[in-house]
Specification:
eight-stranded mixed β-barrel; 22% strand; globular
Length: 392
């Protein structure tokens, strides 16, 4: 069984999107072996059921050849109304009975392999294997413990300072969720955050860290530190909740803080999902006085000209730029151009991942507004952040 997910641009419109799916289905029909069954599961997902009898032996090798053919066929551009749409495809493969004895088990495993191949890079396929199975079991275990992490008070927040490049004073902090599990120890965010998103728990956890962030802002404002801006990361799932803007507004009003003291960080992938809906949500948040930052710029495919349509206040340049800036004058010129263009559209610029003084010097000469990284401070507890602000 081969499961395929193709990615079309949601911004092209439903009619054009449907035509793209029709074209993909026709392509898959042409390459499927005689006697195989092709079906659309829904959305942009297709499944191909290939019986052993219709493929020459060895089955596993021929399936791999078929998977290569499927991915290569789907990824070719689709031309509709004189416009070329570039499609990416990811495929997962399972073999019966090696990877499951029931329909439900096979579908779950082929879905896992498909999405794993998508995360590893587009336009490729992956066959389900024991390593993926072990990882699935581990993620299931992590999920079960995450559901009780609040009860055991295992979730906490760290604060990482952002430094003003000119005054070397603290501009504010980014709040970071951390999980210190009694069973697993310190679990990295890149392990448990995706689990929160996949299970939908990110809505509950996201509201929790948002409330904690706002409470910290209120405490600092009461202590006279009114100039600090505290940022918190927001997931696409949260932004898609219709109640999210009102939730943010209510939390701010309950705490009675200045809305502009709160900055919500989103990533480039958020902007590429549902442009119209996300833009409207961001505009509503901005109208309520909240700041918006685009995190990890450069890790994806966005351009500054593309960003003009979104209501943003801050551009956070991905740490890979800071790592590359010492490699030569071309890298410095490129990041200087990014900073200049960001300033031209009214954005403040933060360079992430600063690790040494040479990076600081080059970025300062490029006009970067703020720095964030281990060279200045690692993420710290709230108590340490309070001592830092007060100069203790």
């Amino acid at each position: 069984m081969i499961s395929i997910i193709s990615k079309k641009n949601d911004s092209i419109g439903h009619f054009a999107g449907d035509q793209v799916l029709v074209d993909i289905a026709k392509r898959l029909e042409k390459v499927k072996p005689q006697g195989a069954v092709l079906a659309r599961l829904g959305g942009d997902e297709f499944v191909m059921l290939v019986e052993e009898a219709v493929i020459e032996q060895p089955l596993s090798e021929n399936i791999k050849e078929l998977a290569d053919l499927v991915v290569d066929t789907v990824k070719n551009p689709v031309v509709f109304s004189d416009v070329s749409y570039f499609i990416s495809a990811s495929a997962g493969i399972v073999l019966y009975p090696d990877h499951g004895a029931t329909y439900e088990e096979l579908m779950k495993n082929v879905d896992t392999a498909m999405y794993r191949s998508k995360n590893d890079g587009k336009n490729q396929w992956l066959m389900f294997n024991d390593q993926i199975k072990d990882e699935m079991n581990r993620l299931v275990l992590i999920e079960s413990h995450l559901r009780h992490a609040f009860d055991y008070e295992e979730i906490h927040i760290n604060f990482q300072p952002l430094m003003n490049s000119q005054s070397n004073q603290i501009r504010g902090f980014e709040t970071l969720m951390r999980w210190q599990s009694h069973k697993f120890g310190a679990v990295p965010p890149d392990v448990f955050i995706p689990v929160l998103e996949q299970t939908g728990m990110i809505v509950e956890y996201g509201e929790w860290i948002l409330r904690k962030t706002v409470q910290s802002i209120k405490q600092w404002e009461n202590d006279g530190d009114n100039s600090l801006i505290i940022s918190v990361n927001i997931s696409l799932i949260q932004l898609k909740q219709e109640s999210f803007p009102e939730q943010v507004k209510a939390i701010i009003q309950e705490a009675d803080i200045e809305p502009a003291s709160l900055e919500l960080e989103i990533t480039e992938s958020v902007l590429a999902d549902d442009v119209e809906k996300i833009t409207n949500v961001l505009h509503t948040l901005r109208l309520n006085g909240v700041r918006i930052a685009l995190d990890d710029f450069g890790a994806g495919y966005s351009s500054l000209s593309y960003l003009r349509q979104f209501p943003l206040d801050t551009l956070k340049i991905d740490k890979t730029f800071s790592e590359d800036i010492e490699s030569g004058i071309e890298s410095a010129q490129m990041i200087g151009s990014i900073i200049d263009m960001a300033h031209n559209i009214g954005l403040e610029v933060v360079a992430e991942g600063i690790e040494n003084s040479d990076q600081v010097s080059i970025l300062k000469s490029c006009g970067c507004d703020y720095f964030q990284g281990f060279y200045f401070y690692k993420p710290m507890s709230k108590e340490s952040a309070e001592r830092l602000v007060r100069g203790w």
